[in-house]
Design brief:
Distance between the termini: 32 Å
Largest sheet: 4 strands, mixed
Order of helices and strands: EEEEEHE
Strand order of the largest sheet: 3-2-1-6
Number of strands: 6
């Protein structure tokens, strides 16, 4: 199992996925205002509390593989 955390400006998604990427359980929480700005963490304490709140769900207990994603309007090209 893998926990995928997508942090966005307005809302953040926490999803538990199996080995093939199928979502087993997910929750969406509001991102604290001003905590993130275009892919940058502006308030680390608020983000820490958000992640702690999102990962405290019983369905996410015991998961050791975590993937983080920060939403941004910038595009990286080669």
């Amino acid at each position: 199992m893998k926990l995928v955390i997508q942090l966005g400006r307005d809302e953040s998604v926490f999803a538990l996925c199996d080995k093939v990427g199928q979502i087993m359980h997910s929750i969406v929480l509001p991102t604290p205002e001003g905590a993130l700005d275009d892919g940058m963490i502006r308030n680390a304490e608020a983000v820490r509390e958000l992640i702690q709140s999102g990962t405290s769900m019983p369905e996410f207990e015991g998961v050791h593989n975590v993937v983080f994603s920060l939403c941004t309007s910038q595009v990286i090209t080669e």
